[in-house]
Structures are given as C-alpha cells and as structure tokens.
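User: Can you recover a sequence for this backbone? Please restate the input before giving your answer.

Assistant: Of course. Working from this structure:
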C-alpha cells in the first residue's frame, strides 16, 4: 500500500481548493476563460505508449487554442499513484489514472479492479457511459476535485514471466513473485491469480526483471513491447485476467474556470483521443503475439476458465466487494 496521505487531510485540502474556486468573481472567471491555461499531465506511461501518442497528437492540437498542454511521461513529475493527490491539492492539472488508484480514496471504484469483469474494450467504453456511473463520477468530482473526462483502453493484461515453467492453472503460480503496481487493489489481483504479489513502480519493472528481483509482471502486450519487457522475460501466458482501463483525469478547479464552449471542445478532444488510442491498442494486441514468438518467447493460452473461476470467486468473497454499489455487477454484466 503506497498511499502517501490520509483520506481526511486530502478531503480538507480539496474542500479549500473548491471553496477558493467558488469565490472567484464573474470578472476573473471571464478573464481566465479568455487566457490560455497551462495543463501539466504527469503519468508513468512512456512517450511512445499509444495513450501518450494520442494525447500528444490528437488531444493537444485540438485544444491548443485554450490549453498549453505540458505532458510529463515516465513519472517525471509525480511518482506513480500520487497523481490524484497532486490534482486534489492543486499541484497538477491532469493524469491518466487507474481504478486501482481511485479505489484507495473512493472504495467503490474497486469494482473496476476486479479480474474478468469487463469483457472487452467496447464493453468498457459502454460501462463508462452508463447512467449508473454518474453518481460515481460525481463523487470523484466532489471529494477529490477531479473530473474523469473519458475512459482509455490499456488492453488485456497477460502474465509475462522470466521463469520457464509452464503456467496452465492458478496453482502453477504458487511462489511466483509477480510484480503488481503498488496499491492494495493491484496486490489483491496478484493474490487472486495464485501468485505472490510484489509492489514495484512501473518505471522500475524492467530492472527488477533483469536482476531477478521479481519472477514476472503483468501488462497488456503493447506495454510489454513498448517497455521492452520481452528482452528480460521468457514467456507470456495469455490469461487476459483484466481488461484494463485508465481514466483521463482533469482538475475540476481548472475545468470550472473554462467557458462552456471550451469545456465542450476539451471533452470532444478527450473522447477522440481515447478512441484513437483504443483502436491503436487493439490493432497492436492483435499483431504482437507473433512478434514475441519471433523474439524467442513462449506464448500460449492456459486454462483461462480455471483462472476466471478462481479470480471471480476471490473477488466476490472479498472485503473489496462490500464497498461495491448494490446491484452494480449485474448492471455491468447486463450491458
Ligand atoms: C502498470 O504499472 O503496470 C500499469 O500498467 C498500470 C496502469 O494503470 C497504468 O498506470 C500504466 O502502468 C502506466 O501508464 C504505464 O504504462
């Protein structure tokens, strides 16, 4: 668990930020709407990750009249997992955040960290747009001062191991030190898969694999290629245990200073950017199996039903599930 702040102090800080925003007079609001606002984004993603490419090539030019977009990749500005706190405190304007990070502050978001919940990229997109998401989005705005602009598709997470032993069922992961990102919800997923989860920041995964500090990691195929994890691993097990998402998180304080026209343009640019990245990730996912085989890795499909059964059972019996809004799993499944 790497949360560096407690919920109460964060809520107090956000309250002050929101109150300050509310006292802005009409005149200063207009002045700010006419000025270009600098929006700094911090994320652990590399600049060649498709989400980063789309933000730079689709989002930034579309909003260039109102926003100086300053992306900081490779967690250069803020450590992975601290970005939401930074936005809430007014120290950052934008990030690509995960449901796992949101769940540390708003526990009901752990529903979207559950393995084998979303079926595919389209399901993920339709769930985000569903009416039942409105109260959850509102809670993020009210408690953190963060607007979730859109959902970005990261891809289907697969096991990527430096060990050679074949993994067909969860029991084959017993004792495997599997790197997961550093929040409770991620660690829970590692355990539910049958492994020994180890928290490591994304920017340190390559070295941890290279030195043998960990036995493996999980990420979608495009990330494994982009971050060159194939250079230091021997196999990819196609468990598809999480259809992973990120939310494009935007400072509500900055949003509220923009005119309705600017807000509409930014919303459109965010949706176009997410769609562009989604299509590129899907294309890469379809192509990359062959690439990894050519690099000498074993790539195979295990007994996915055995993983699905174990993981779903673990989530439904977990403390995490106690925070999920009543009936929401059924609503998600019905979409
Ligand atoms: C990772 O740390 O494994 C992860 O894939 C988690 C995602 O939520 C996302 O933050 C991603 O890293 C980074 O953007 C790096 O691609």
């Amino acid at each position: 668990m790497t949360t560096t702040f407690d919920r109460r102090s964060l809520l107090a800080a956000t309250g002050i930020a929101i109150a300050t925003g509310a006292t802005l007079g009409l005149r200063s609001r207009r002045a700010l709407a006419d000025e270009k606002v600098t929006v700094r984004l911090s994320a652990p993603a590399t600049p060649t990750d498709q989400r980063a490419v789309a933000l730079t090539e689709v989002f930034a030019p579309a909003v260039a009249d109102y926003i100086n977009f300053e992306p900081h990749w490779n967690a250069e500005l803020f450590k992975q997992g601290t970005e939401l706190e930074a936005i809430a405190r007014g120290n950052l304007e934008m990030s690509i955040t995960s449901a796992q990070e949101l769940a540390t502050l708003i526990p009901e978001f752990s529903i979207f960290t559950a393995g084998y919940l979303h079926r595919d990229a389209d399901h993920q997109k339709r769930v985000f747009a569903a009416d039942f998401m409105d109260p959850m989005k509102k809670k993020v705005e009210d408690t953190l001062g963060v607007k979730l602009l859109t959902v970005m598709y990261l891809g289907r997470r697969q096991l990527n191991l430096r060990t050679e032993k074949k993994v067909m069922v969860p029991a084959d992961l017993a004792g495997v030190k599997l790197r997961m990102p550093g929040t409770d919800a991620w660690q829970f997923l590692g355990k539910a898969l049958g492994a020994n989860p180890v928290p490591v920041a994304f920017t340190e995964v390559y070295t941890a694999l290279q030195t043998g500090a960990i036995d493996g990691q999980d990420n979608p195929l495009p990330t494994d290629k982009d971050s060159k994890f194939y250079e230091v691993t021997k196999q990819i097990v196609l468990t598809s245990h999480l259809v992973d998402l990120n939310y494009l998180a935007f400072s509500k304080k900055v949003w509220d200073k923009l005119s309705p026209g600017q807000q509409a343009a930014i919303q459109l640019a965010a949706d176009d950017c997410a769609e562009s990245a989604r299509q590129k990730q899907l294309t890469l996912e379809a192509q990359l199996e062959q690439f990894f085989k050519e690099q000498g890795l074993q790539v195979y499909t295990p007994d996915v039903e055995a993983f699905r059964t174990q993981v779903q059972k673990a989530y439904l019996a977990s403390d995490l599930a106690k925070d999920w809004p009543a009936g929401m799993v059924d609503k998600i499944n019905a979409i």
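That completes the design. The chain has 14 helices and nine strands.
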